[in-house]
Design brief:
The chain is mainly α. It is 48% helix and 11% strand. It holds the Pfam family SBP_bac_8.
């Protein structure tokens, strides 16, 4: 081709390209749509792979909710669970909107509706379920894999909160290396404390307890010397509750009137599946280490150190004894002051002191941890926006456990915080808390009182506690009677929580929190056997030596089979 022809060809080609481009801009809608599609796709990708980027178009998701009959909204409000400060806040932040697949009046109703949804195979886009339901859904391939969504969209704060319990919560929600739920963490209850009437101790000239023998001598003095002036024989020793499923002599740390620390001081872990000496899972209630703790309680019962009406006293009966000043000793967690409101009202000069004991052979208190999770938020397999759950949870955490609320002046934020503060409505996708939330709150409140932390940089709940504790101190300094609420907060958050924060504790991690196939058939009868026998031993109806026969009977009555199933489940 000649040089001249090449030049002409190049000019024609350039003119053709320009004409095509101009034609596309002027009359070809396809090119505009392509550009728009690219923009929309970019916005969608940004929302799907980041924590805070809102969706370009409103994403509506279905969910099942507990909506109790007593749910309150601000006076004059027409809000509902689908239209409230919670939903408006989330729409302003992420452009998401819930549509309730079902609403339940209480836990039983909710669990039934979850079961029906699972059975039918028609579950909401997002649902809050138990561990057993979570496992069933995962095993039936009904859940979205949230691994990528978590890695892309979980806020730094969410990751820090999970890390506060060594990511055990996430481990429980992970199957074959994939994350299938965003679990709601459980807060550590902390070690059990022995609460004693300090004013009674001072009146009798008693020293602080350090050993089991000290505890025995103090309670005997309370019962026999009657510092509360109740009359001869009317002061009760340490109460232990056997009323109902969750209230028993031992068990989880989130209840009162238990003797867990007595057993852990001897290396026993009743009602817990723990790692045995051979590395396999064993049920703590039937291990030989139980006998020493039982012997202590049986001796204390015989000596009147333990409430003689143990077998028939209800939880409310015990609380009334403590409130009325008929009992000056009991086991409970750091939150005990919140159960002592009546005691303070009747006697503003009452002084309750907390101690963490007894210690084991290493001079440390041992406790077992609880289930790391309360429940599991899951996403239906096939839902187009599985990351929505992670994003919504992250926002909730940032505004409740973090400091995002301090710089957000939006109307939606202010309304949201007002709902949180007053307990209005139903939060659709709530948050969760640090494993060591109670100790952490003490640290922050203490620093604010000392002037080393700016109170305005605490989260809203901690700030309210700081204000309450400050009012308590002001009243004391002015020789005035503190308000009841301030007395409760100070003694729980600054006295008991300080003790918990400052005490070195050995923590034993149970290895199993679920249910095996045989448990559904045998567990109730096994538990009845256990609790009936243990109560008889404590009240001296049976000798502690009978424990070995009980343990053997428990294993033969189905315990051995269940133990094997537990080990299969965790291996």
């Amino acid at each position: 081709m000649s040089k001249k022809l090449k030049q002409i060809f190049s000019m024609l080609l350039a003119m053709t390209m320009v004409t095509g481009l101009l034609g596309g801009c002027a009359g070809s809608s396809g090119s505009v749509d392509t550009i728009t599609d690219i923009k929309d796709t970019g916005a969608q990708n940004a929302a799907a792979t980041s924590t805070y980027e809102p969706y370009p178009e409103t994403v509506t998701y279905t969910i099942g909710l507990r909506v109790r009959a007593d749910v309150a909204y601000p006076e004059g409000s027409t809000d509902t669970a689908e239209e409230s400060a919670y939903t408006r806040f989330m729409k302003s932040k992420l452009n998401i909107q819930n549509k309730n697949a079902f609403e339940a009046a209480d836990d039983n109703d909710y669990n039934q509706k979850v079961s029906m949804a699972i059975t039918s195979g028609d579950i909401p886009d997002i649902m809050n379920v138990t561990y057993d339901d979570f496992k069933e859904l995962a095993e039936n391939d009904m859940l979205e894999d949230l691994t990528e969504a978590y890695n892309n969209c979980a806020s730094d704060l969410m990751k820090e909160i999970y890390a506060s319990n060594d990511n055990r919560s996430l481990d429980m929600a992970t199957i074959d290396g994939k994350l299938y739920a965003i679990p709601t963490t459980a807060i550590s209850s902390g070690p059990e404390m022995l609460w004693l009437r300090g004013d009674w101790m001072d009146k009798l000239g008693l020293e602080e307890p350090k050993t089991l023998e000290d505890i025995e001598n103090i309670v005997k003095a309370f019962v026999k010397q009657d510092p509360g002036e109740n009359g001869a024989g009317k002061t009760v020793g340490i109460p232990l509750c056997v009323d109902g499923d969750t209230n028993y002599i031992y068990g989880n740390y989130s209840g009162a009137y238990k003797a867990n620390n007595i057993f852990t001081s001897f290396g026993a872990y009743p009602e817990q599946w723990v790692e045995g000496k051979d590395g396999t899972a064993v049920y703590g209630s039937v291990q030989p280490e139980m006998k020493q703790g039982l012997q202590v309680l049986a001796d204390w019962y015989k000596e009147g150190v333990i409430d003689q009406q143990l077998a028939v006293r209800t939880y409310d009966d015990i609380k009334a004894l403590v409130t009325d000043g008929k009992c000056g000793s009991y086991f409970c967690g750091w939150w005990a002051p919140y159960d002592l409101a009546g005691s303070y009202e009747l006697n503003p000069d009452v002084e309750w002191r907390a101690y963490i004991l007894p210690t084991g052979s290493d001079n440390k208190v041992t406790m077992w941890s609880g289930n790391p999770n309360q429940n599991y938020f899951v996403v239906r397999k096939g839902f187009e926006h599985p990351e929505l759950l992670v994003k919504a949870k992250s926002i909730t955490l940032d505004y409740n456990q973090g400091d995002a609320a301090y710089t957000d002046e939006s109307a939606e934020c202010k309304e949201y915080l007002d709902y949180v503060a007053h307990g209005y409505g139903v939060e659709v996708i709530g948050g969760f808390d640090w494993y060591d939330a109670a100790a952490r709150a003490y640290q922050h409140i203490s620093e604010a009182i000392d002037g080393t932390r700016n109170p305005d940089e605490m989260n809203a709940y901690e700030h309210s506690l700081y204000e309450s504790c400050t009012k308590y101190l002001e009243a004391v300094n002015n020789k005035e009677k503190p308000e009841k609420a301030n007395w409760l907060d100070y003694n729980a958050r600054m006295v008991a929580s300080k003790l918990m924060n400052d005490t070195e504790v050995n923590i034993v991690q149970p290895v199993f929190f679920s249910q095996t196939d045989s448990m559904s058939l045998m567990w109730e009868s096994l538990r009845t056997l256990e609790r009936t026998t243990i109560l008889k031993i404590v009240t001296n109806e049976l000798s502690v030596d009978e424990f070995d026969a009980f343990a053997e009977e428990w294993m033969n009555a189905g315990g051995q089979q269940i133990t094997e199933e537990v080990n299969e489940a965790i291996n």
